[in-house]
Amino acid sequence: MVQPAILWTGVVTSAFAVVFVRLSDFKSRLGAAALLLPVLAFPLMRSPIAYFITLSAIHMGALLYGLWTFHWADRFLSVGTYRSLAILSLLLCFGIIGDPLLAVTGAGAILLYVLLARDVSWRRRALLVTATFLAVNLARFILHLNTATGGFETEPLETKFASWDQISSNLFTTFRSVLLVYGAEPSGQIVGTVIPECLRLSLVVLALAGAYRVARTGWMSGGRDNPFCSMLVISALLDFTALAASNRIALDGSPVAVARYLFPLWLDLACIAALVWPRRRMAVCISAAVLAATLITDYRDMPPCSTGILSTEDNQLLKRLEKDFPANGIGTWWSSGNLEVASLGKLHVYPAVTQGDGTIVPFMHIRKRMNWHSFDDKAFFVVIPHPEETFTEAGALKTFGTPAARVSEGRYTILLYNVDHLPARGS
């Protein structure tokens, strides 16, 4: 979990850096900090957001490259130096190697900005397009060369459009995922327990209002007014559209699972709000109130001797596992890492997902390669939440057979398998 922590620290630091560079006076920077903190500060976040951060290091790392690419593109448009052009091209290349989504949210945003920027000189627009295409193709060449010489192989970017009957559902799920990354999704919860979530809806409104203002002034100025913010707006729009129009939601299923693809939108809108409203007293006061409510609520929910990333209910599950179950187990895609970290290393919980034949398999994307026979000669448990998430109880039973014990703890079912129980062959 050290890698996600380092990367997230870099993302937050970069957001503050690029915003402060563009704000000259102390009062504006103070207001911008108040607007950034409740959106990006970690660990002052609701539990679902902590899931994204601990399990999506690759997507977070790409944010660093995307943000600084826009910074240097803006610098090139303002001063016209080839040094700025070379830096943005290298950053974009490295970012696409790490996460192909940056080809859409980074390269796509630059190209669309160049297309819409009517009053920017043709020479600078042509150079920016050339540098962008060079970065994309260089990244593709490096990845191909790496694979051809025996190196790792990356997962290609999903480019299949969603079917027509999925579009309305995709739009709803994508919008809900935006609320999730902002920690502003109160649906299905008791009213008195979701005050921070309700207050965080105002942060979404501020961000969208700021994006509209940037888009309007950018269009009226022909692209000459604040290219950095204009590229952020285009990047956020492309990110939203790419997710809503693709079959990625159908593949991943849950808004919690697909929310990680909206990291670029999240960071873009956070920086936009901080740059547009730093001197607006009402906006700063709203943001400060959200931060205070989040601090108070998170402090109240944080159990002693824990990382604080679990809810009160999940902390009860953790206590039960530590007391009555073996040290090795299987959990869902986003709860496994949190249980392991919150146990301070006492538990080792491996994420699993359902495969086509109904059995469950390890989720290799965030763990060292393994199979269920790593549990041979070891007792282990399987944690199944309700409502079900990345796999079902039926899938666990089909994979491992009848458990030695079946225990209920809150909204969870826990299956216990003894030392002499061998996982089904072929898993």
From TrEMBL:
Listed A to Z, the keywords are: Membrane, Transmembrane, Transmembrane helix
Q: What sections of the protein cross the membrane? A: 6-23, 35-65, 85-114, 126-143, 190-215, 227-246, 258-277
Could you confirm whether the keyword Transmembrane helix appears in this record? yes
* Keyword Transmembrane helix carried by entry: yes
User: What organism is this sequence from?
Assistant: Gluconobacter frateurii NRIC 0228
Q: Give the protein's recorded name.
A: Glycosyltransferase RgtA/B/C/D-like domain-containing protein
